[in-house]
């Protein structure tokens, strides 16, 4: 099998891989921020619940979480699951997992901000929401961007775990082609794709980090 045919067969899988990445990132980043608020809540019971959630999500394998999300409705509630649910389950599993990681990153950034900034904003008449959105948030984003970048790069590679639900993303298709044709070329192509994808992510995040730099 020549390279052009391999690329043609992997094309659909590449699109699905990018889809998992985009949907996960778009949903887990804002959800992670909300979870971080719950983790820092003054109510100890609420804070404890979110702490447990984060601990479970970070302490168990993502592959296991995907299997629970996919098979859970049937085993727990006897709800028949269809093939259409497969992609939804993958997105739910990825989002819940990565939101927990992002939540801890957000929390560390927010708690690292000097208390004096909050006090100064209060004196100037800012509300709590205005203080956070207009003063704190951009500084937090600048501080946590390297950690966010690391998680985003990991996400690119973790998309291959969708194979656990027999979802035909790029890595799954590459394995099938390699097995059927006894060739390593699909794995080489897949490796190049992941590397270029991660390189692109790193370049974009580096550009954003420079744009947020306060000093030239």
How would you describe the overall organization of this protein?
With 216 residues, this protein is mostly helical. It has a domain at 19-167: MetI-like (MetI-like fold), CATH 1.10.3720. Helix content is 81%, strand content 0%. The protein has eight helices and no strands. The protein has helices at residues 3-39, 44-59, 62-77, 85-111, 115-123, 128-158, 170-181, 185-211. The longest helix has 37 residues, at 3-39. It is flat and about 70 Å long.
SSE layout and pairings?
Blueprint: H1 3-39, H2 44-59, H3 62-77, H4 85-111, H5 115-123, H6 128-158, H7 170-181, H8 185-211
Helix pairs in contact: 1-2, 1-4, 1-7, 1-8, 2-4, 3-4, 4-6, 5-6, 6-8, 7-8
The total count of helices amounts to 8
So, the CATH homologous superfamily of the domain at 19-167? MetI-like
User: Mind telling me the CATH class of the domain at 19-167?
Assistant: Mainly Alpha
Beta strand count: 0
Enumerate the spans where pLDDT stays under 50 for 5 or more consecutive residues: none
Fraction of helical residues? over 70%
Q: What does the largest sheet look like?
A: none
The share of residues in extended strands comes to under 5%
The name of the CATH topology of the domain at 19-167 is: MetI-like fold
